[in-house]
Amino acid sequence: MLKVVLDTNILVSALWSGQGNAYNIVEMFFKKEITLCYVPEIIEEYKEVLGREKLNFSNDKVSSLLQEITKNGILADSTESTISLLDEDDRVFYDTAKTNKAILITGNSRHFPDEPFIMTPNDFLITWEQGV
Predict the structure, then answer these.
(1) pTM value?
(2) Domains and CATH numbers, the chain
(3) Which of 18, 44, 50, 56 registers the highest number of CB atoms within 10 A of its CB?
(4) Is residue 125's pLDDT more than 90?
(5) What's the CA gap between 121 and 118, in Å, rounded?
């Protein structure tokens, strides 16, 4: 099964809109069409960001999503890289994807180097439809 790492902005978009590309990708995880790779630092970031009061996501919805990720995702390894990134908080997502030969799906592709394993939600879904 295809392994992916989801940047936090994908989960925010999916929960916020309940539709669209980010939502469709999260649904692919729930349908077990893709496998989500994570490390504890990623789960911590998900908790922190999705729990922000200004986003107004229900605690139950966030808890349920995180439980699903930790239950059905892969607790992965991550080797720290030395690549230069615009935002150091993104390093854990980059490193986890690179270490596990996974696709990093992000809405902020400009924060990452131009590498084939880093995709926007739209690019990922186009690639998926073409038979990754």
Answers:
(1) 0.95
(2) 2-129 (3.40.50.1010)
(3) 50
(4) yes
(5) 10
